[in-house]
Design a protein that fits this description.
The protein has about 160 residues and is of the alpha/beta class. It is built from five helices and five strands; from the N terminus they run βαβαβαβαβα. It has a five-stranded parallel sheet with strand order 2-1-4-3-5.
Length: about 160
Amino acid sequence: MKIRLYALGTRMPAWVDEGYRDYARRLRGGWSLELVELPVAKRGARSPTARLVDEEGERLLAALPPRATVVALDERGTAMASAELARRLADWQREGAPLALMIGGPDGLSARCLARASLRWSLSPLTLPHALARVVVAEQLYRAWSILHRHPYHRE
């Protein structure tokens, strides 16, 4: 299964890049995770937040493959246990469409991005920095892979 993580924001700290790459490269058996970084809108003291979020949303939507299953990372979304995520990933893999995950910028995802998503996924009720969300997503995808492939990484 080809999974792409579309994330607003570039030039992450080294620990973020290293953590993300570590989990992404562990995926095998037909699974791959690719990071697509998109720049955030330039913010100024008088920049209207709604306009910036819409601009970022247009960049995200333009980057998505047309027939992808889209998941929006959203703090108001559905929280899932790792086993439930694994089941959903197995279903999406059977459907055969590419999977696109979206992480918004500092002010979240636009209404159009949220409307395009098949699922809104909440990683935690905590507010996470967007950089850390990349690492958590990669780890949870690897954990889901390990559940589905009975790899010892996940212990129940």
